[in-house]
Amino acid sequence: xxxxxxxxxxxxxxxxxxxxxxxxxxxxxxxxxxxxxxxxxxxxxxxxxxxxxxxxxxxxxxxxxxxxxxxxxxxxxxxxxxxxxxxxxxxxxxxxxxxxxxxxxxxxxxxxxxxxxxxxxxxxxxxxxxxxxxxxxxxxxxxxxxxxxxxxxxxxxxxxxxxxxxxxxxxxxxxxxxxxxxxxxxxxxxxxxxxxxxxxxxxxxxxxxxxxxxxxxxxxxxxxxxxxxxxxxxxxxxxxxxxxxxxxxxxxxxxxxxxxxxxxxxxxxxxxxxxxxxxxxxxxxxxxxxxxxxxxxxxxxxxxxxxxxxxxxxxxxxxxxxxxxxxxxxxxxxxxxxxxxxxxxxxxxxxxxxxxxxxxxxxxxxxxxxxxxxxxxxxxxxxxx
Length: 385
Description:
This protein is 48% helix and 11% strand. It has helices at residues 39-50, 61-72, 78-92, 105-118, 121-140, 167-180, 185-194, 198-202, 244-255, 275-289, 300-311, 316-323, 328-335, 340-365, and strands at 2-11, 14-24, 30-36, 209-210, 215-218, 221-223, 226-228, 238-241. The chain has a three-stranded antiparallel beta sheet with strand order 1-2-3, covered by helices on one side. Strand 2 and strand 3 form a beta hairpin. Helix 3 crosses helix 5.
């Protein structure tokens, strides 16, 4: 419901009376409209606000996305907000005046299929994720009872060109970097030994490194050549725990830096690193020197770290925290890969199980004739850095 209220305003000429419309949004929060000169003028606009608090299922898609986009302003980084706003305007804004219960899931399925076929399956995936989140926000506040987008089939994505590194390849990169690009050695080791995002590492300051605690505080990011004083999401704000060798390397690295510069990994001019320059001047030449011909992005070091954590028998929860993911499914489905190291360790353990079983059978049946026991060989595996 909406109502008209008088508002007395003190001016140089004295106290004047104006009128404003007071209303509550779908979540019960009270708002006021602009000021009107006369009550007659305010009454003309009253109907614009009377339906802002609709009954369940009577809300429009425009209202759903409006409140969701307002919510993410407080939660996400600027770049994420810009992307979500762009996708809303490009694909969902045309549904603004349609009531939520007027479009069925079959129609929405066709809508997302068209985006996938005519634009990109990746865009369709992002749009579906955004639509689900927007509706869930309204469900949380009791405005809607069900999420129509939960019935939409998962978007099939083409196999991503993601190439994680094995432990041997990582060791080769570190050795070559120390020899050919010593100024980037601590930076590369941080990429490999933390699983942090590129922008998070570039934004690190000396104060973010705690040598005693062996940790790095992630609370900002440097993306698109701009420092943002918040991470990608709330769960990305975290402490990453590092091993002793990396802590020692970072401690020595800090001693080589200008004492007055707060940045942990500055460029030669003392400013934040430019990601494009990094790839051109350091990363691609380093891969070439190591004869690693597959396409490996700096971002793939994040997945390589997760592979190392999981292949070493550490928990998914630990990998999830280190990477800053809100859901363990993201850690497993998007970043983890069943690479050579994982396969070697897994088959080693399976072989050991059979070997122990066979040894038990030998001890039980050693006096029985014509018993042939097959022994599975044991192999040594590489240790995680």
